[in-house]
Protein backbone atom coordinates (compact mmCIF):
# COMPACT_ATOMS: atom_id res chain seq x y z
CA UNK A 1 0.00 0.00 0.00
CA UNK A 2 1.05 3.63 -0.41
CA UNK A 3 1.38 4.18 3.34
CA UNK A 4 4.03 1.42 3.57
CA UNK A 5 6.16 3.39 1.10
CA UNK A 6 5.38 6.88 2.32
CA UNK A 7 2.49 7.89 4.63
CA UNK A 8 2.01 11.16 2.74
CA UNK A 9 1.16 9.34 -0.51
CA UNK A 10 -2.38 8.53 0.65
CA UNK A 11 -3.25 12.11 -0.37
CA UNK A 12 -2.03 11.47 -3.93
CA UNK A 13 -4.51 8.77 -4.98
CA UNK A 14 -6.84 9.62 -7.89
CA UNK A 15 -10.12 8.36 -6.43
CA UNK A 16 -11.98 9.57 -3.35
CA UNK A 17 -11.87 6.11 -1.74
CA UNK A 18 -9.58 3.12 -2.11
CA UNK A 19 -9.86 -0.37 -0.60
CA UNK A 20 -6.95 -2.79 -1.03
CA UNK A 21 -6.58 -6.44 0.03
CA UNK A 22 -3.18 -8.13 -0.27
CA UNK A 23 -2.18 -11.73 0.43
CA UNK A 24 1.28 -13.24 0.08
CA UNK A 25 2.64 -16.75 0.70
CA UNK A 26 6.34 -17.57 0.25
CA UNK A 27 9.08 -20.13 0.97
CA UNK A 28 6.64 -23.05 1.14
CA UNK A 29 9.25 -25.37 -0.45
CA UNK A 30 11.74 -24.69 2.36
CA UNK A 31 9.68 -24.53 5.56
CA UNK A 32 6.21 -23.71 6.80
CA UNK A 33 4.94 -20.99 4.43
CA UNK A 34 5.38 -17.37 5.46
CA UNK A 35 1.94 -15.80 5.11
CA UNK A 36 1.07 -12.11 5.01
CA UNK A 37 -2.41 -10.61 4.85
CA UNK A 38 -3.18 -6.88 4.87
CA UNK A 39 -6.33 -4.83 4.42
CA UNK A 40 -6.07 -1.09 3.75
CA UNK A 41 -8.61 1.68 3.33
CA UNK A 42 -7.93 5.31 2.40
CA UNK A 43 -10.16 8.30 1.83
CA UNK A 44 -8.84 11.36 0.03
CA UNK A 45 -9.61 14.84 1.36
CA UNK A 46 -12.11 13.56 3.92
CA UNK A 47 -11.82 16.97 5.60
CA UNK A 48 -10.72 19.88 3.44
CA UNK A 49 -7.24 18.84 2.12
CA UNK A 50 -6.57 16.18 4.77
CA UNK A 51 -6.59 12.49 3.77
CA UNK A 52 -6.99 9.53 6.13
CA UNK A 53 -5.88 5.92 5.82
CA UNK A 54 -5.75 2.73 7.87
CA UNK A 55 -4.10 -0.69 7.51
CA UNK A 56 -4.69 -3.99 9.33
CA UNK A 57 -1.78 -6.45 9.17
CA UNK A 58 -1.49 -10.18 9.92
CA UNK A 59 1.88 -11.85 9.29
CA UNK A 60 2.88 -15.42 10.31
CA UNK A 61 6.40 -16.76 9.69
CA UNK A 62 7.90 -20.26 9.83
CA UNK A 63 7.66 -23.23 12.20
CA UNK A 64 7.70 -20.96 15.25
CA UNK A 65 4.52 -19.24 13.99
CA UNK A 66 6.26 -15.93 14.63
CA UNK A 67 3.35 -13.54 14.18
CA UNK A 68 3.01 -9.81 13.74
CA UNK A 69 -0.49 -8.38 14.12
CA UNK A 70 -1.38 -4.73 14.21
CA UNK A 71 -3.20 -1.71 12.96
CA UNK A 72 -1.84 1.62 11.72
CA UNK A 73 -3.50 4.95 10.95
CA UNK A 74 -2.15 7.61 8.58
CA UNK A 75 -3.02 11.30 8.35
CA UNK A 76 -1.82 13.38 5.40
CA UNK A 77 -2.55 17.06 4.72
CA UNK A 78 -1.72 18.31 1.21
CA UNK A 79 -1.01 21.75 -0.20
CA UNK A 80 -1.96 22.38 -3.83
CA UNK A 81 -0.21 25.04 -5.91
CA UNK A 82 -0.50 26.00 -9.56
CA UNK A 83 1.85 23.34 -10.98
CA UNK A 84 2.72 21.27 -7.92
CA UNK A 85 1.37 19.54 -4.84
CA UNK A 86 3.17 18.97 -1.53
CA UNK A 87 1.98 16.31 0.89
CA UNK A 88 3.03 15.60 4.48
CA UNK A 89 2.11 12.36 6.22
CA UNK A 90 2.14 11.06 9.80
CA UNK A 91 1.57 7.44 10.74
CA UNK A 92 1.01 5.72 14.11
CA UNK A 93 0.68 1.99 14.64
CA UNK A 94 0.13 -0.52 17.44
CA UNK A 95 1.55 -4.01 16.92
CA UNK A 96 1.91 -7.29 18.80
CA UNK A 97 4.52 -9.96 18.06
CA UNK A 98 4.36 -13.51 19.42
CA UNK A 99 6.01 -16.96 19.16
CA UNK A 100 4.71 -20.53 19.45
CA UNK A 101 7.30 -23.12 20.57
CA UNK A 102 5.17 -26.27 20.15
CA UNK A 103 6.88 -27.28 16.88
CA UNK A 104 10.43 -26.29 17.89
CA UNK A 105 13.21 -28.48 19.32
CA UNK A 106 16.06 -26.91 21.32
CA UNK A 107 19.44 -28.56 22.04
CA UNK A 108 19.51 -26.82 25.40
CA UNK A 109 17.10 -24.86 27.57
CA UNK A 110 16.16 -21.41 26.36
CA UNK A 111 15.19 -18.87 29.01
CA UNK A 112 12.75 -16.55 27.31
CA UNK A 113 10.89 -14.06 29.46
CA UNK A 114 7.75 -13.76 27.38
CA UNK A 115 5.88 -15.34 24.48
CA UNK A 116 4.67 -12.01 23.09
CA UNK A 117 5.17 -8.27 23.31
CA UNK A 118 3.43 -5.13 22.05
CA UNK A 119 4.83 -1.84 20.81
CA UNK A 120 3.89 1.49 19.26
CA UNK A 121 5.47 2.52 15.96
CA UNK A 122 5.63 6.03 14.49
CA UNK A 123 6.56 7.16 10.97
CA UNK A 124 6.42 10.24 8.76
CA UNK A 125 6.90 11.22 5.13
CA UNK A 126 6.76 14.00 2.55
CA UNK A 127 6.35 14.15 -1.24
CA UNK A 128 6.36 16.77 -3.96
CA UNK A 129 4.40 16.28 -7.19
CA UNK A 130 5.33 18.70 -9.97
CA UNK A 131 3.75 18.91 -13.40
CA UNK A 132 6.47 19.41 -16.01
CA UNK A 133 4.19 19.89 -19.04
CA UNK A 134 0.82 18.68 -20.25
CA UNK A 135 2.03 15.09 -20.69
CA UNK A 136 4.61 14.56 -17.94
CA UNK A 137 5.10 14.98 -14.20
CA UNK A 138 7.68 14.14 -11.54
CA UNK A 139 7.02 12.86 -8.02
CA UNK A 140 9.82 12.89 -5.41
CA UNK A 141 9.32 11.68 -1.87
CA UNK A 142 11.12 10.63 1.31
CA UNK A 143 9.91 8.87 4.43
CA UNK A 144 11.26 7.77 7.80
CA UNK A 145 9.82 4.71 9.56
CA UNK A 146 10.22 3.49 13.17
CA UNK A 147 11.04 6.96 14.46
CA UNK A 148 10.80 5.79 18.08
CA UNK A 149 12.97 2.66 17.49
CA UNK A 150 10.62 0.31 19.41
CA UNK A 151 12.14 -2.51 21.49
CA UNK A 152 12.08 -5.95 19.84
CA UNK A 153 13.21 -8.47 22.47
CA UNK A 154 11.61 -11.61 23.94
CA UNK A 155 14.15 -11.64 26.78
CA UNK A 156 13.63 -8.05 27.95
CA UNK A 157 16.93 -6.95 26.42
CA UNK A 158 16.82 -3.15 26.36
CA UNK A 159 19.51 -3.05 23.65
CA UNK A 160 17.45 -4.70 20.89
CA UNK A 161 15.61 -2.14 18.76
CA UNK A 162 13.82 -1.92 15.44
CA UNK A 163 16.18 0.39 13.54
CA UNK A 164 14.79 3.48 11.86
CA UNK A 165 14.32 3.05 8.11
CA UNK A 166 14.87 5.83 5.55
CA UNK A 167 13.18 5.59 2.14
CA UNK A 168 13.70 7.75 -0.96
CA UNK A 169 11.56 7.31 -4.09
CA UNK A 170 10.89 9.13 -7.31
CA UNK A 171 8.57 8.49 -10.28
CA UNK A 172 8.51 10.18 -13.68
CA UNK A 173 5.09 9.90 -15.35
CA UNK A 174 4.88 10.39 -19.09
CA UNK A 175 1.91 10.09 -21.45
CA UNK A 176 3.32 8.71 -24.72
CA UNK A 177 0.04 8.94 -26.62
CA UNK A 178 -3.68 8.95 -25.73
CA UNK A 179 -3.54 5.19 -25.03
CA UNK A 180 -0.08 4.52 -23.55
CA UNK A 181 1.67 6.03 -20.54
CA UNK A 182 4.92 5.05 -18.79
CA UNK A 183 6.11 5.58 -15.21
CA UNK A 184 9.78 4.71 -14.52
CA UNK A 185 10.41 4.57 -10.76
CA UNK A 186 13.49 4.58 -8.53
CA UNK A 187 13.47 3.34 -4.92
CA UNK A 188 16.22 3.39 -2.28
CA UNK A 189 16.01 2.36 1.38
CA UNK A 190 18.49 2.34 4.26
CA UNK A 191 17.93 0.56 7.59
CA UNK A 192 20.91 0.02 9.85
CA UNK A 193 23.53 -1.71 7.69
CA UNK A 194 20.92 -2.90 5.14
CA UNK A 195 20.53 -1.09 1.84
CA UNK A 196 18.17 -1.70 -1.06
CA UNK A 197 18.05 -0.13 -4.51
CA UNK A 198 15.27 -0.89 -6.99
CA UNK A 199 14.57 0.52 -10.45
CA UNK A 200 11.55 -0.38 -12.54
CA UNK A 201 8.91 0.94 -14.88
CA UNK A 202 5.14 0.72 -14.93
CA UNK A 203 3.02 1.06 -18.04
CA UNK A 204 -0.67 1.71 -18.63
CA UNK A 205 -2.70 0.90 -21.75
CA UNK A 206 -6.12 2.55 -22.03
CA UNK A 207 -8.64 0.13 -23.52
CA UNK A 208 -11.54 2.55 -23.22
CA UNK A 209 -12.83 5.30 -20.94
CA UNK A 210 -13.58 2.81 -18.15
CA UNK A 211 -10.81 0.19 -18.35
CA UNK A 212 -7.02 0.55 -18.11
CA UNK A 213 -4.46 -2.27 -18.28
Task: Summarize this entry quickly.
The chain has 213 residues and is an all-beta fold.
**Model regions low in confidence, pLDDT < 50 over at least 5 residues:** none
Share of residues in helices: under 10%
Would you report the number of β strands?
A: 10
The helix/strand class is: mainly beta
Strand order of the largest sheet: 1-2-3-4-5-6-7-8-9-10
Spatial separation of the terminal alpha carbons = 19 Å
* SSE string, helices as H and strands as E: HEEEEEEEEEE
What's the total helix number?
Answer: 1
- Average pLDDT number: 91
Beta-strand content bin: over 45%
Taken from the alpha-carbon principal axes, the silhouette is elongated
- What is the gyration radius calculated from CA atoms? 20 Å
Query: How is the biggest beta sheet arranged?
Result: 10 strands, antiparallel
